[in-house]
Specification:
Elements: H1 3-21, H2 30-58, H3 64-69, H4 80-83, H5 89-111, H6 116-144, H7 148-161, H8 175-188, H9 211-226
Helix pairs in contact: 1-2, 2-6, 5-6, 5-7, 5-8, 6-8
């Protein structure tokens, strides 16, 4: 694997972690507050391992902290999906469902790949992705097959997020398997699956992001940039 390929995986996980952490003390119920915080920590743990490895592959002396805190938005390679604002709870669940289904399959693919270091990382992260996927699927079904209002919100979230999923599959052949995972969840949730094709925003993999990432990074990086080299 190249530096750029590992960086993409790490940036996806890092930005997803930051977004999910925004739910801390704001989730609709205490149990969900704990669950989303734990999922955020899982994503952060994956990001640390991946960014550490990316730094080694780059060979420029940058560690996980340097890659996380000392890059501007144009240097990040995450997909646009993960940087989108949380929106309401349905929006967050739609984002998590689509991301987790992709991450699970991508990590499984990497486990069987030729890069032993990455296979070891994937062996850890894939187990967490299975839980993330199950959690998001249960909430998607609960909201989609719930009240008229919860179904409306869940369908709106799926429709809004769907176009951003195409970028996940640039350079790989995982979309068919991803659809085989996602479609039954949407069916059980009595939600309509958006049609394939149409508008498919891209740019994150090449450093062209939405304005949302700049604000996210400003919050995430402020302490490190204000006190460079500080240690506990």
């Amino acid at each position: 694997m190249t530096f750029e390929e590992v960086l993409r995986l790490g940036d996806d996980a890092l930005v997803a972690a930051q977004r999910l952490a925004e739910w801390c003390a704001r989730a609709p119920e205490m149990e969900e507050d704990v669950a989303l915080t734990n999922i955020a920590l899982d994503q952060l743990g994956a990001a640390r391992m991946l960014l550490s490895y990316a730094g080694e592959l780059e060979g420029a002396g940058r560690d996980e902290d340097a890659l996380a805190y000392l890059r501007d938005d144009r240097e990040f390679r995450n997909v646009l999906l993960v940087e989108l604002p949380n929106g309401d709870f349905a929006m967050t669940m739609a984002k998590l469902l689509f991301l987790a289904a992709y991450q699970r399959d991508r990590y499984r693919q990497l486990m069987a790949g030729p890069d032993d270091r990455l296979a070891g990382i994937a062996g850890t992260t894939v187990k967490e992705s299975v839980y993330h996927l199950d959690h998001a699927a249960l909430w998607t079904i609960r909201l989609g097959d719930g009240t008229e209002e919860s179904r409306r919100r869940m369908q709106s979230a799926v429709d809004m997020v769907w176009p951003y999923t195409y970028e996940l599959f640039d350079g790989n052949d995982l979309r068919d398997g991803w659809l085989a995972t996602v479609e039954p969840v949407l069916s059980d949730a009595t939600l309509a699956r958006p049609e394939e094709g149409g508008w498919a925003p891209r740019g994150g993999r090449t450093g062209l992001h939405t304005e949302h990432l700049s604000y996210l990074l400003a919050e995430m990086q402020v302490l490190h940039r204000a006190h460079p080299g500080a240690a506990w």
